[in-house]
Amino acid sequence: MRAAGAAGAAWVRRAAVVVAALWAAACVDAEVTPIGARRPSRPENCAVEIFPATQPPYPFTQVASARAKCHFTMGRTACIDELRRQACAAGADTVFGFAEGMRGEYTFIAATLAARTAEAPAPIAQPRPAPMGDVSCNPVCSPGFACRAGECVPQCNPPCEAGETCSRKRVCEPAEGKLAPAKASGTSL
């Protein structure tokens, strides 16, 4: 009876060691690297916006880069929850730009932690209108060509000197040595 009790106790100890090892393996871990000046922490479980594949649609400043590691038994959500916790601790309210991977039994998610800023986003540059009297080209001219009087003309850089013209190859050639345009095959001269 005593031997059976000792064997049962040994089994319970081994089971406890295995459960403890599995519990330790299931932990979530994170590394955070601050970017710029440190910010005051926000309350635990603060509101954090998540943008896994994009940047936030509002102005922000980067606070830190973070990397969460979680065991597969905890799931990907555990990594995202850890990134939320780290964002609050770092003074951030946004997590964005996930880079995800797996190694062995662990999922890794790297992301940027950011905080909203009050500054307005930079205005989007609008194309300049064509100068008055200039007819626009349709379709738009290729790079290195400019629209003049509805025709795409090459632009040499640097500009050609007197007595030279800019060829379709965008090189300056003597004006008097200019070749006549080529005729399409099958047409008469």
Give an overview of the whole structure.
The chain has 189 residues and is α+β, with helices and mostly antiparallel strands. The protein folds into 2 domains: 91 residues, no CATH class; 46 residues, no CATH class. Strands 1-3-5-4-2 form a 5-stranded mixed β-sheet, with helices on one face. A hairpin with a 2-residue loop joins strand 6 and strand 7. It is elongated. It starts with a helix and ends in a 15-residue tail after the last strand. About 16% of the residues have low confidence.
List the SSEs and their pairings.
Blueprint: H1 2-25, E1 28-34, E2 49-51, E3 60-71, H2 76-90, E4 94-103, E5 106-116, E6 145-148, E7 151-154, E8 164-166, E9 172-174
Parallel strand pairs: 2-4
Antiparallel strand pairs: 1-3, 3-5, 4-5, 6-7, 8-9
Based on CA atoms alone, the radius of gyration comes out at: 33 Å
The count of helical stretches stands at 2
Give the N-to-C terminal Cα separation: 116 Å
Give the strand line-up of the largest sheet.
1-3-5-4-2
3D shape: elongated
Class based on secondary structure composition and strand pairing: alpha+beta
Q: Could you tell me the strand content as a percent range?
A: 25-35%
Helical residue percent band: 10-25%
Mean pLDDT: 76
SSE pattern, N- to C-terminal: HEEEHEEEEEE
Low-pLDDT ranges: 17-25, 121-135, 180-185
The major pleated sheet works out as:
5 strands, mixed
